[in-house]
Write a structure and sequence with these properties.
Elements (H helix, E strand, L loop, with lengths): L11 H5 L2 E6 H14 L4 E2 L1 E2 L1 H6 L2 H11 L3 E4 L2 H7 L7 E4 L8 H6 L2 E5 L2 H14 L2 E6 L11 H8 L8 E7 L12 H15 L4 E3 L3 H4 L9 E2 L22 E13 L4 E2 L5 E2 L4 E6 L27 E4 L2 E4 L9 E4 L13 E5 L5 H7 L4 H6 L6 E5 L4
Helix pairs in contact: 2-4, 8-9
Bound molecules: pyridoxal-5'-phosphate (PLP).
Family: Belongs to the alanine racemase family.
Cofactor: pyridoxal 5'-phosphate
Catalytic activity: L-alanine = D-alanine
Length: 388
């Protein structure tokens, strides 16, 4: 079925926007194909919960569908309903399961609930007795202690001959707690536990791995892999060079350039004292735009992983954040740039080709996932089509 991808729209609004986000759909498609190759004979889903990690579930969903994804995971049924027109013949799994009052949205949009507790299971059986057969997935908890039936309960269910014929799980799944740490013994323990359960559900698909698990090798792939962050160019593994193509560029405009004297202080709390006469660029992005306050140049007592604050990139140079990030603005120290290199109205890259998303995350003491899902509503967006 042909699906029109919106052409890259670099509008006049985008050209002049105070904050802008460029999302490379071609890079997302490339990353999906790369992960599909790494997944070997397993199929590869697309995880598009939380508005596709803040990047837009419609555009991202359509791109992944076009690239060949036929399995999608969302957190909530409303997200599944938004996705459905863009992924017409795909299976859409809903991780939060199904609750009383949500039957209509599940059946209208042909969504597949992920059943993860005994209560959910009992409710789902009652729904089936009224409506007849409908697919579901079963989640088993193999050590995360988040959602999932205990392995022994999932095994008992597999062997329960009295379960109704309308009960038709199409997938059994679990989730790794430490997949990002290739040295962790936890993944192998979870693998062994999951194997026992998935074997008992012979004949239906099994799925264990998110982005990071794909890199743990074929034992972890089963029938379906579930990458999210790696599709969006983020780091899936700790301490390993990121092989994915970057997807997002965030930029914000310089509202004002100002000169300040040695000994003066910068931003709230006066936490940073200038060591030299300085030139400062006041930029139109702050913590309301996901440019987290913990990224500040100074005065963040809770930040432990990285002592210095974040940076921006402008005129070919990395420039440090001076003082605290505020709600709508961040101040960068541009003293080291030639005076005529930048002007008010220019854009500073917050992350993108020159500053990795995960470098911003580390400076802010968090992970790329949190940066992306905190971007907020103020960025003007352009979607680049590229090679999809
Ligand atoms: C979010 C999520 C994923 C995707 O995780 P990434 O680390 O972003 O690849 C896969 N499976 C489940 C159950 C999830 O909650």
């Amino acid at each position: 079925m042909p699906f029109a991808i919106d052409p890259a729209v670099v509008t006049e609004e985008f050209e002049s926007a105070p904050l802008r986000l460029t999302i490379d759909l071609g890079a997302i498609a490339d990353n999906w194909r790369d992960l599909a190759k790494r997944s070997g004979s397993a199929r590869t889903a697309g995880i598009v919960k939380a508005d596709a990690y803040g990047l837009g579930i419609e555009d991202v969903g359509q791109t992944l569908y076009h690239a060949g994804a036929r399995d999608f995971f969302v957190a909530l049924p409303t997200e599944g309903a938004t996705l459905r027109p863009y992924a017409p013949e795909a299976r859409i799994f809903v991780l939060a399961g199904i609750w009383a009052g949500q039957e209509q949205i599940f059946f209208d949009n042909d969504l597949v609930p992920v059943i993860s507790s005994e209560e959910q299971l009992a409710f789902w059986m009652s729904v089936l007795s009224e409506r007849g057969e409908h697919p579901c997935a079963l989640q088993v908890d193999t050590g995360f202690n988040r959602l999932g039936l205990r392995p022994e309960d999932a095994l008992a269910l597999a062997g329960d001959v009295s379960r109704p014929a309308s009960f038709a799980p199409v997938l059994v799944m679990s989730h790794l707690a430490c997949g990002d740490d290739q040295a962790s013994p936890m993944s192998h323990r979870q693998l062994e536990s999951f194997r026992t359960v998935s074997t008992a559900y012979d004949g239906i698909d099994a799925s264990l791995s998110a982005s990071s698990g794909i890199f743990l090798g074929p034992d972890y792939h089963f029938d379906l892999t579930r990458p999210g962050i790696a599709l969006y160019g983020g780091e899936a593994l700790n301490g390993v060079a990121n092989p994915m193509r970057p997807v997002v560029k965030a930029e914000a405009r310089i509202l004002m350039l100002r000169d300040a004297k040695a000994g003066e202080t910068v931003s709230y709390g006066a936490t940073q004292t200038l060591a030299r006469d300085s030139r400062l660029a006041v930029v139109s992005a702050g913590y309301a735009d996901g440019f987290l306050r913990s990224n500040s140049g100074a005065g963040v007592p809770l930040r432990q992983a990285v002592q210095q604050g974040g940076t921006g990139f402008v005129s070919g140079t990395r420039v440090p954040i001076a003082g605290r990030v505020t709600m709508d603005m961040t101040i960068f120290d541009v003293t080291d740039l030639p005076r005529d290199a930048i002007r008010a109205g220019d854009y500073v890259e917050l992350f993108g080709d020159n500053i990795a998303l995960d470098d911003v995350a580390r400076a802010a003491g968090t992970i790329g996932y949190e940066i992306l899902t905190s971007l907020g509503l103020r960025y003007e967006r352009a979607y680049l089509e590229g090679e999809i």
